[in-house]
Amino acid sequence: MKVIILEGIATSGKTTVINLIKESLERRKLSCQVIAEEETLMPIVDNVDPQVSIKHLSKILTHVFSLDKEILIFDRLYFTHIFRTNSTVQMFKPIEDMLSQHHAYLFFLKIRKEKIEERIFNALKGERSGTNWVNYVRSKGNDRQIVNYYQNQQDKLLALLKESEINHQVIEVTNMEFEFVREKILQTLGL
Description:
Number of helices: 9
Structural class: alpha/beta
Radius of gyration: 16 Å
CATH superfamily: P-loop containing nucleotide triphosphate hydrolases
């Protein structure tokens, strides 16, 4: 079993890349399971207690590791929980230990800092407009506060990545070359 984790801020292209990877794996007749952020994050999106997050994630991992799949793909997993609970990677060591047993590989999709504003506001006007996501983003404050939130989130997530024992790679996605990103991920994992 191979375990792929995609992390990154909103609009970094995680869902797009996951869909491209899944299509490629299915064409190759490899069994895969996508575990969306609706399972990993959204049920406890407002949680600030790291122990609640760890318990939630442990339950998910125990379940998905029991599935008969060749590849598991996570749309976010524990880094956003660490950020939101203002925790450390060390506090989430039980999660990293579970992932290490399955040789998980984390790919962080990074947007150049000066382009985050453009990506967020294009998404607010685009296909996501009118969704709960728009209300969630707008709850972060005025336009400047929203941009600062996502720039700060990306900076903190990248800093946390340096503390992680999980194999990982940062991939630049500013230019939205998502097919290239898919190929890079598949090549890294020997798929």
